[in-house]
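User: Can you help me understand a structure? I only have the sequence.
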Amino acid sequence: MSGDVLTDPSLPVSGVRAQINNFVLGYVRTFALAGRTASFGLGVPFQHADLSGLAIDAPTQVHRAGIGDLQMRFALNLFGNPPLSPEEFSEAPPRTTLGISLTVQAPTGQYVPTRLVNLGNNRWAFKPEIGVSQPWGNWFFEASVGVFFFTANTNYFNGQERSQAPLTLTQFHGGYTFRPGLWLAIDLGYALGGGASVNGASSGSSQANMRGGVTLAVPIARGWSAKLAWSRGFVTRAAGNYQMVTVAIQYRWFDR
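Assistant: Let's start by predicting it. Here is the structure, written out as tokens:
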């Protein structure tokens, strides 16, 4: 990720630009629950970031590297895609699905309260979400909406308390499947809310950010696949106005 960071007006920093490399090791387990398909996943990030800007009108550069906040996610299909054997799964046609999930972000990241810039957030975050997927021949269309709720960071920058309002995230995806495992999608996301306050004083930093991009998935060997994604911000009111390039390698297997 690289780009400008639109900071809280209450902070003594401005003109911030960041370059962040984010490496994530993830694991997802799919299983049957009450006759429905469910999954549990977790991701552990390692981040390497360089930032520059003005701090109290003085040019400043900082470097951070270390473990970020752990994310865990439980998902459950409410409609479509029932639990199947590997043979049934490989032959099942795409169908309409509706599901819900809960993402939890734990305060496991590197955090030093005397710093304004940290890899960890020193707080918990919870995101309930609902999503739907609709196939149409080789085309597919997906939409989801979720809301992040945050606990307070009670040790923010020399003992202050920083709170953040709920942040609503809406996503839309549309794509085409050329053959199993090979697909291309156009992505659009919108973030609204999430205004921060320090010691009860609002900073007026609510988001109204829109991003767009493309994702390509390619099978590379039996059980292995790769994804390449690019996105950029179209409208950014607060937070990072990043251009993002993502490369992912995934291995999938079945237990009997």
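Now, to help you interpret it: The first helix runs from residue 86 to 91. Helices lie at 86-91. Let me know which part you'd like to focus on.
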